[in-house]
Amino acid sequence: MKNTNIKNIYITKHPVPILSYLNADTEKSKVLKACKNKSGIYMWTNKFNNKIYIGSALNLRRRLLEYYNTNKMLKKIKRTKSMIFRALLKYGYSNFKLDIIEFCNPFELITRGQHYIDLIKPQYNILKFAGSLAGFKYSEDSKELIRAARLGSVISEKSKLMMSASNHRSVPVIIKNNNSGELKEFTSLSKAALYLGIYHSKVSICIKKQKAYKGIYTIIKKF
Length: 223
Description:
The protein is α+β, with helices and mostly antiparallel strands. It folds into two domains: 12-128, GIY-YIG endonuclease; 155-223, Winged helix-like DNA-binding domain superfamily/Winged helix DNA-binding domain (Arc Repressor Mutant, subunit A, Orthogonal Bundle), CATH 1.10.10. The chain contains ten helices and seven strands. It has a four-stranded antiparallel sheet with strand order 1-4-2-3, with helices on both faces. It has a three-stranded antiparallel sheet with strand order 6-5-7. A hairpin with a 5-residue loop joins strand 2 (40-46) and strand 3. Helix 2 (28-34) packs antiparallel against helix 3 and helix 9 (189-196) packs across helix 10 (200-209). It starts with 5 loop residues before the first helix and ends with a strand.
């Protein structure tokens, strides 16, 4: 009988990256050169324990430069709960593999990022929904995803027609159907509430408690 260990089972569910760097330390220059002026999805893998982080960026080179800036990471750790920053500082770049899973249109960052988070279930990602709230300041990756959503390509034209900026409760929100993966954007709590058939106060509660409505609809505020 063929011996299939846990590590092999773990790896087989991962996507095949378009670029792969086995040593994030010695191959830093190659990484930055390849990612210049590119948008896409990247993945850090700890070679010591196989734990993973999935991220996305409108400007991959600029984003990855932040990971290579020790002082910047230390400052951000004081303000956030970044597990990947802590891991990189603890284990060192040479103990990490860096993959560029795909280059993609900036408009697709939310949907593609969420796809890989759902597929891989990365242990270092505190946010399990691309662009969601997590009881603390937004990470830079989340900000990038929400900026991409702002551009509107992931929002259907039908959804846009349902919006109205005239409502006095103009707190823009995004609703994700966790079953279908569909995203809808609304310019106010009231419009979001109307879509779900609930009071706007219920929408506020779901956002504050980070609780999906009926276990299906995840609601987040936009910047």
